[in-house]
Description:
This protein is mainly α and 164 residues long. The chain has helices at 2-24, 27-54, 56-63, 71-91, 93-97, 101-126, 128-155, 159-163.
Amino acid sequence: MPVNLVSAGVSTFMFPTVAGWLKEQRVPDVLKRVYLLTAGLVLVALFYLLVLWVLRDWIFTTVLKKHFENRDVLLMLWSAICIAMVMRDHLAYTLIAHARFRRLSAMAAISALIAISTSVIAMRHYGQAGALIGILIGEGLSVVGIFIMALRDARQVSPVAASV
């Protein structure tokens, strides 16, 4: 949850920042900056998740006073989902700034359909972890789709490059 809170906090200034960069720089240059910021957030998230992993016994037994079957597998899957969500949220800002809403909406719908379908099938085979496997597949598909769409936009002539 703290990773999502940090990501949401950063998101509030990402759109206006990326939109401003796109007025001044070429799309490939802006995309590099967004990738670097996303990589930084992913590193922060990985550090937090590493600390969570190291302290998981204490957190589950002392803080939560709970025992979950397959706790470690579930924690790893939730961690991977968290990283994918951070990447998806922040990589999308170049597309949002270019008003690629139809493409993003289509990608979200396809990813959600695949995530739900995969979750239902995987839950039959893997139980609780199956639901998370489906979510991870959907999030992963979103990240890959957004990455590909952003690269396509970067190949097109940007307004800054056209005016120079």
